[in-house]
Predict the 3D structure of the following.
Amino acid sequence: MGKNKSIFTTQEVAELLSCDLTTVIKWVNSGKLNAYKTPGGHRRIEKSELLKFIKKYNLPFPEELKEENRILIVDDDPEFVEIARGYLKEIKDAKIEVASDGFSAGEKVISFKPHLVILDIKLPGLDGFEVCRNIKSDENTSQIKIIAVTAYDSPQDKKKILESGADHYFSKPLERGKFLNTVEKLLS
């Protein structure tokens, strides 16, 4: 019922959250759960509002609403891409796409709509700093989490990429455990 739906009835919300219909109606009437009324007077809840409500009140997340985790790896080193892809296979419901330069990364961000970008700082053409700034400065993509990675680790680059909006930073080679913990934390 949930993955492909964008609008729910109060009855569907009650079933998803394993509660009584009157409870959902009380949440809506008190303003805790945002809903709108159809011309016929029926309440409807948008998926985005339901997800905000579940998160705000720390409710158990219904399996039916879980989506795949879309992850974009942006790196021009095929060896690193394969290593990262191998690690990311441990992430439940991960769908992975790859871009090898900053320009194709921008195209993939729009078409693939990733939840997380693993972004190399040193890229041919448009570098990782600019890609990061572009993602974080656009209101349509600013919520995307970014993990910056580099083989040329320096305090200046780390400071610059975090100032560009990256959510986390790793130097290569990646430490598998720390990397996966960070990925899972950013996706939750």
Observations:
- Residues 176-187 form the longest helix (12 residues).
- The chain has a mean pLDDT of 93.
- The chain has two domains: 7-64, 69-187.
- The helical segments are 10-16, 21-29, 47-56, 78-88, 102-112, 128-137, 155-163, 176-187.
